[in-house]
Amino acid sequence: MAPGTSAWVRAAALALAVTVMPLAPTGTPTAHAADCPDVEFVFARGTNEPPGLGRVGEALSSLLAGQLGGRKLGLYAVNYPATYDFRAAADGASDATNHIAVT
Length: 103
Hints:
Helices cover about 40% and strands about 10% of the residues. It is built from three helices and two strands; from the N terminus they run αβαβα. It has a two-stranded parallel ribbon with strand order 1-2. The longest helix is centred in the N-terminal third of the chain and has 16 residues, at about 5-20.
């Protein structure tokens, strides 16, 4: 990652989370399936990070988990080549879309 990019990525991820969370419908029935989390966190790691949530995703998911008041948090690391070949980012968009569609 280029110098200064890490702070930018954190700010962007936090802004996205803060923007999207209020869009969640209130009064929606809670799922009762044993394997179904109350909240699903989908995150794409940073460029050149190993597979998983990455540093920012791990930090953000920890912060989010602390705000859920005991609700179950599901984590999904987007499967894509986190390389400088930014055309491959479409692979990640497809993977995230497919995961969300079946969740």
